[in-house]
Write the structure tokens for this entry.
Amino acid sequence: MGLSRSCGVSKKRFTQHIAAVLCMAALVGGCALGTEKKEYVEEPVEDLYNAAIDLMQNQEFSKSTEKFDEVERQHPYSVWATKAQLMAAYAYYQANRYDEAIVALDRFIQLHPANKDISYAYYLKALSYYEQISDVARDQQMTQLALTSLRELITRFPNSKYSRDASLKLDLTYDHLAGKEMEIGRYYHSQGQYLGAINRFKIVVDKYQTTTHVPEALHRMTEGYFALGLPGEARKTAAVLGHNYPGSEWYIDSYEMMENKKVRVSRTGSANKVNSEDGQGEEAAWYEIWKKF
């Protein structure tokens, strides 16, 4: 009796064990089917590359980069693999995936420093930074990176067809960085922190001399010195402004402030009459008056 009961229990446990094993097998099989990889099919390099180009022209940039990567994976020693590396970076750039474009371009530059398209790789890298430049109210790290990349392109490839555009963008980048300094300087100025403001405007004058912000920076410095009770420094700064930008509206503002007089042309178009040093009255351009400077 005890023996038959024991056998019955053993049989039941055995049946449960078998069922559990079969269930596990089914689960494992299901997982295997779910994660089954696509069958690897090697394709001719021309077909892969042309398919990637077609996808890019159709603006399917993500699929295009996958195809370009496949060119390199299946045919790593082909000349098309090198082209595919650069084209993949371009596809990332076109998709506004700038970080991935920069990584791909750095890799291309490192692997193929003597490639005939290397100047374009540097140019595309610079563009990837340049197009991420934010407004002057935000952090300018990307502007600095764009500046560095543009300089590197111009230095390495001064005669490249990309250097002209890089030079234009470099000027705009400088202007952007100067604009950031001007914004900070204006804020300090509005808060009555004239010394801090003057230091910011000095950066613009000393470091970004070719930008459009210099006349205003000189005028703001003149205002700052005047507000600090330093008329001598104010006059010197205004003299620099007048010498370099005699027709600037900012110089008119500085002149009117320093001389406490109006010299702007009236709405009727008549010029101000002033007495020259020899006592003869004459009509003169306002910027010819300030002989004291």
The domain at 44-115 is CATH 1.25.40.10 (Serine Threonine Protein Phosphatase 5, Tetratricopeptide repeat).
